[in-house]
């Protein structure tokens, strides 16, 4: 039987409990995959691109090497039987995100490419995409994309994190035109990931940065309209952070920050509106974490954590409150180089499923069985 570890944070005690079955289902570790190709997949995104009520999936491929990006179509109940190349022109892609950029009610795509123009693709409403053009600076070393309404005008703006170049915010005019570009950070920054949230409860969206190369991680506060000059540090100051996610883990009304570090342990930094000096150790082991995502996986009202690890097992951390997490492996028999992990309800059962973007291996997904396990009990 599968052993789950219950991590009691701030304590040294670790207890093991037995479970009849894993709540995350992928028979044989390969049956549920997006296609049969083993690509250099860097990220994955999900949304209903063809308007049929089911969640479809977009993959970003290549990283430093040109490769085609794909859209996989859900035919119902989390079954993917057809796919399409997004663009005949291949690029070295690190990220792809879905959002309605032109306000027509369907989901468009933005890609973040390594030293190649970042593009956006318009959806025709049926899940077929055409390239509109470049967004942001030309040939930047982009590592991630975030779509958020950073200026509060009701449309989605595009944020690019660039490793070794200033980060960018491309402001949307509401129709998918991005002529206004705002830079933040410097050319020396090694920003890999970004989260957008109101961290100090002043009504404005702030920026949470994950930096590599032993650089300080920061929260950039939006002190005036699109002004990000005040920043708050979090972490040790020399972390190798590749991913951040924000949520209110301790239900105090302030957003906290979960980090995924490529070197060392992973922490939750607790926010109070002013600083992030208090922390929770949720993963003491060094698993070279490349991606961290947060959501309520078991529908108990508490925010859980997903970690994607390099050449190791990926783990879910189920939040039981009072700083305790149950550590559950997705599949102990598979150690893959997972670059990104994503969460979405693929089979419309009301429970969030888990999607992996794996480099040099199949891109797997795991169906969440917490709902079925509750019925069985």
TrEMBL record:
InterPro entries: FG-GAP (IPR013517), Integrin_alpha_N (IPR028994). It holds the Pfam family FG-GAP_3. It comes from the Bacteria. Residues 1-21 form the signal peptide. Keywords: Signal. The keyword Signal applies. The keyword Iron does not apply. This is VCBS repeat-containing protein.
């Amino acid at each position: 039987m599968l052993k789950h570890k219950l991590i009691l944070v701030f304590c040294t005690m670790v207890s093991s409990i037995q479970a009849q079955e894993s709540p995350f289902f992928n028979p044989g570790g390969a049956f549920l995959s997006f296609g049969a190709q083993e690509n250099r997949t860097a990220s994955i995104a999900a949304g209903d691109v063809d308007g049929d009520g089911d969640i479809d999936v977009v993959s970003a491929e290549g990283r430093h090497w040109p490769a085609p990006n794909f859209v996989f179509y859900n035919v119902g109940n989390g079954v993917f039987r057809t796919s399409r190349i997004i663009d005949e022109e291949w690029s070295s892609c690190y990220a792809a995100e879905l959002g309605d950029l032109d306000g027509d009610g369907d989901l468009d795509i933005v890609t973040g490419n390594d030293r190649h123009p970042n593009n956006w693709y318009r959806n025709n409403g049926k899940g077929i995409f055409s390239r509109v053009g470049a967004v942001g600076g030309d040939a930047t070393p982009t590592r991630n994309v975030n779509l958020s309404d950073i200026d509060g005008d009701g449309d989605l703006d595009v944020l690019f994190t660039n490793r070794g170049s200033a980060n960018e915010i491309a402001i949307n005019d509401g129709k998918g035109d991005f002529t206004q570009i705002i830079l933040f950070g410097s050319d020396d920054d090694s920003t890999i990931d970004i989260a957008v949230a109101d961290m100090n409860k002043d009504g404005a969206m702030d920026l949470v940065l994950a930096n590599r190369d032993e650089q300080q991680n920061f929260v950039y506060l939006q002190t005036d309209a699109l002004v990000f000059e005040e920043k708050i540090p979090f972490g040790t100051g020399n972390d190798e952070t590749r991913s951040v996610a924000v949520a209110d883990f301790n239900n105090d009304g302030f957003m906290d920050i979960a980090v995924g570090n490529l070197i060392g342990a992973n922490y939750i930094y607790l926010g109070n509106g002013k600083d992030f000096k208090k922390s929770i150790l949720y993963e003491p082991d060094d698993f070279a974490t490349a991606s961290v995502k947060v959501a309520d996986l078991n529908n108990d009202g508490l925010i859980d954590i997903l970690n994607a690890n390099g050449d190791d097992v990926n783990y879910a951390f189920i939040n039981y409150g009072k700083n305790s997490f149950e550590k559950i492996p997705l599949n102990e028999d598979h150690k893959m180089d997972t670059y990104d992990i994503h969460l979405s309800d693929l089979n419309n059962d009301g429970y969030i499923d888990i999607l992996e973007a794996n480099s040099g291996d199949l891109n797997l997904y795991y169906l969440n069985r917490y709902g079925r396990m509750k019925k069985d009990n």
